Amino acid sequence: MSGIALLAVTAGVVTACGDEGSPAPASTSSASTSAAPGARGAAKTELHMVENDGHRLAFHVTDGSGPVIVLDAGGGEDSSYWKDIVPKVRTATGAKIITYDRAGLGHSETVAGPWQVESAVSDLKTGLHKLGVTKDVILVSHSQAGEIATYLTKENPGLVSGSVLVDASLPPLYTDEEIARIVAANQPAVDAAKKDPSKPQNRQLISTAESYTPMHKAYHHISWPDTVPTTVIVSEKTPFDGSPEDAQRWRDAAATFVRQGPDRTLITAKRSSHDVPKDRPALVLKEIEKMVSAQG
């Protein structure tokens, strides 16, 4: 199994593009213009620094109306992951769009200790509430963000009206056997990271590895609310492109998730790697449009 598997799904060390060493802006908000040409017109994007549990997080809000589309990047990626998609989504839907940097990424402050999905959920929920967003959220969640989406939606079904899960980490995958395979395959990378824990990417990998097994044993038993429709996009190559057995398990997990409840649709991103938003942006945009239209 390729050692990139855990990195792509949970830590994103190899593909990380966020500058974790960047200082957080001193101001609580600042405005900038984001070009979104077309019938919907240009849109303004504003940066808000939101505090939760003693640390600050960067939220980027693009003006719009109707449902609020929250784009949540995979492990190791910050809000800039969506920079090419945000203007297109805004033009196509006219909706308000929110992207954000999870703790330790982009302009958000680092939190010490093992990575905990509960903390990540709290950060996102608190940020949305402080921005006045309490309903009609459409989550677009890639990779590791699927775990945040699952817990957030289960605990706050009134907040989320629909979701597009993009090659997301889903509960059915994490049997005891699969967890053990992922941990074993990635142990060399974790050991290497421990030799230089000063690097932000290494710190994130180490913190993820510390909580990985118990967190995913629990995640395996979490269910998605039947009241919240979702579209599941699964990549053809998956994060386990080097292991046919694990790649099939990833695809099977997506299919199982869809069968477990109503109003769920499965779509395969042909010819795509795990990086579906980069490889097949038009497909992601199409499914976001469809979800927005379905939710009014």
Automatic annotation (TrEMBL):
InterPro entries reported in the protein's UniProt record: AB_hydrolase_1 (IPR000073), AB_hydrolase_fold (IPR029058), Carboxylesterase_BioH (IPR050228)
Low complexity composition bias: residue spans: 20-42
Start and end residues of each stretch annotated as Disordered: 20-43
Residues of the AB hydrolase-1 domain: 69-285
GO molecular function annotations of the record: hydrolase activity
SUPFAM superfamilies in the cross-refs: alpha/beta-Hydrolases (SSF53474)
Superkingdom of the organism of origin: Bacteria
Keywords per UniProt: Hydrolase
Entry protein name: Alpha/beta hydrolase
Species of provenance: Streptomyces rugosispiralis
UniProt lineage: Bacteria, Bacillati, Actinomycetota, Actinomycetes, Kitasatosporales
